[in-house]
Amino acid sequence: MFDDVRIAIARRDIASLSREKTIVLALVIQIFIAAFSSFLVVGLTSLYDPGSVESGELTFGVSGDTRNELNEAAREAGVEIEQYPTRTAAMDAFQRGEVIGVLHADASSEQIEVTATVPDGSIQSTLAVVKARDVLEALERNERTNRAAHLETNPVPLPPEADASSYFGFTYTVLVPLLLFLPPFISGSITVDVLTEEIERGTLELLRVAPVSLTDIFDGKALGMAILAPIQALLWIALLSVNGITIDNVLLLVVLVAAVALLVVVLGAVLGLTLGQRRQAQLLYSIIALGLFGAAALLPEHPATVAAKLAVGSQTTVTTATVFGLSALAVGLYATTRRYVGTIDPERY
Amino acid sequence: MRPRKILRIARWEVTKNAGGIDRKTAAVVAVTLLVLGGAAPLVVAQGGVTLDEGFYRVGVDEESPLYPVVESDSTFAAQDPDEELGSEIDLRIRATQVVASDSQKGQAALAELRSSVDSYNDRVMSAESNQSAAFPVTVTLEYAERNLTTTGGTDTLDGGTVNDGTPSDSGTPDDGGNDSDPADGDGSDGTIGDGSNGTTGDGPTGEESTGDGSAGGIGGIARSLTGSDATTGTPSDISPPFPFQSLILAFLFVIPLNFVIQAYGSTMLSERLNRRGELMLVAPVSRGDIIAGKTLPYFLGALFFEGLIAGGILYLQPDSGSGLYALAAVVPLILLFLSATFLGAMFARSFKELTFVTVSITVGLTTYAFVPAIFTDVTPIALISPLTIVVRDIQGVAIEPLSVLLSTLPPLFTAGLFFVLGAGLYREEDMFTQRPIPLKVLDSLAGRIHRRRSVALVVILLMPLVILAELVAVAAVYPISMGLPQPIWLGLILFSIVVIEELAKSLPIYAGFVHNRYDRSIRSALAVGALAGLGFFLAEKGLLLAQLLGGLPEVQQAAVVSAGPTAGIGPAVGLLLLLAPLALHVVTAATSAVGMRSGRQGYAIGLTAAIAIHFLYNFSVVMLVV
How far is B372 from chain A (nearest CA, A)? Predict the structure, then answer.
């Protein structure tokens, strides 16, 4: 009997969400973003690591005494170079736009002094710097090997080159946690809304006339919102898989999202019921939720790290323990809050 | 607008509305801030948040020379090398032999190990006694100007031309592949893996290779903060001109706005609950007074926070600019956030909906403000966002007044438009009833329509939205239609642009008809249609003029999706080319106006006809030119 009441309340809230079409719109946008997520990832990573964008032919002009060593290093780094007899000739080619940058190398007494010239103030300067760095680091490695006799410790040998997508780490450590934790955050925010709206509009009184207690209302509203987030997370995971990003441990991830959603929904509900006004409650909710997310770094593993490790399949016992710990905490807090809601005098609103 | 009334309403908003901040809220805020403030040092002491801790599992025996490398990088979890490759570990290292599991993850782990080895070597080498052997190469990085003549002209057409989507700076001969064109991005493979120090793919802890290495990344930061042109160091010291610190500072400017619009949206929406706003509406004050009064405290509050931030930065960083430009550039941003929230609160039917709207505004506007600013040092594109001015001011770079205008006027216009549209809804019929959204859209437009010529004004006002929508449409169509032959994707892009433009011209007229501002005779429909077409033509050509006079950055040139006659055309042909679009806009707007006299179905028919005419015109012109 009571279950029916609670489910009815939850269903009513979700139905009103879909009637307003905003959630439908949100889902459509979600699908749109997911459809482009590979594109999005490329864009974001290229901001963060400009060298990863494939840059076609970037030819460097090389001059100076040690240009043969530079030549060798450039071949290792996979960068095209063009030799010029003098720096002036190389700079002329640079000004004509034939080369993207100029590396002029002179051997001084013990070191090689390289002057790297790159174009100023264009998107190419970023790429040129990254490529120049690749070449010069290869040069540095070669020279170190040549001078190993003068070194106390030998440099660690470099492992072989990998044919890796540079978006891999970014996808799992940033994109996946972001997509998984955004729905719970919004769910908590909407919990504040559904409660304060009833209070502010005065419709809570009408609801109270029906044979339901405040606890039932809390149950219905909170559960309705807490269920939405894991469903959205599942949708994300499915869409990412369509995009070729495989997600491991789907079940544990959904449990994690559900636990986090329940936690923030409880937070939203408590704030909504105690403050009774959207403005204050919503403001506090976002401050506290963001603060808690930051403070979660004190846990052995941050929830975002947990999500990343689960998604990529690197979970440890600590990871699984964190998921279950968070779930237990969420359920415990929910039960406590339920008891607290029972003590609230509904007449106060 | 009367200042005294505005000030009085603003005072009420602060002191009386919804009780202000009561004692309980204040207490909760204080406790929260105390707890969070107490936790912050602990979090920092722990080394902050590292998202990729233990992300790759590496089986490594302790004798291996690579063992200390794996130990020192928190991205790796060191395990027993006897475990199974693939399911339990991603890399197996025995002595100097590295074997990666046969998966994307294994390859990514290998690339990460490569970059770890590089930074580990740099660390070890910096402890060497013979420094010239440890760091045998020194690099001086210089930035040199070069002027390559641009060859690509703007294509000339009526409202349909889109630059080819390459916002690259100057037409260098070899820029074929390195523009930020979405086309290249997808074919992601190839020469990426060679990044010997590429901090490829290790999430937000990218700075760790700089932090613990030999003070890497100095190049970028030093350059961004001091604007000096040359840096010297070891190869791993040089880094691209990425204004990292300034960006974090710029981000600080955006964060408070998100909290301010939360409160602002709530108070605007709560006016609409239980007819609370009724009292204010019947008071002898104008709509404008109410809106301005209720907005003023939030505007000043946001400005106060921004002022605090600017002051703090100036105090910490004496070599930055005056901070005045930064503040001036932040004002349009604040107004944009507030106006979008106001419009959202007027449209929202419930708190839940407002939350969705606020989240969208936060995400959308933060992206708009923040992402272009990343390119601050790089391209003129950055000037789209006012934050660029803020970053440049923080860097102490000289700022041209013209560029301030360029990056502040568009958001100011848009903010004005949002306030005007929202004000159209600030009336009893819309605030206190649950009107369907399409009707509300018409209401918001009709708020400004009083006589025939006002339709032209509304069409001109809509211009920022038209450009925005067209940019989004082009961005959406472009990747989808990659594989299609040229006439088809060109047609798709032209079609979406034509639909947007025709809607922008006809919706204000339709709003006028629905609100019975115009009588439904053929004559009046033709007159109103002609005025709307004229308004659109003026706005479009006005933008073109601004583009020619001001030398807009190229992305904005691309944004000005229309272009007129350029050099090399005789005056008679020029006049014809100028007048043809005018005739087109007048004819199409009049077509939809005539159709919509008989209601919604007639509107649909008229609009379809107008779109067909416009599309045929654009497509044939494009085909002639291309």
Answer: 10
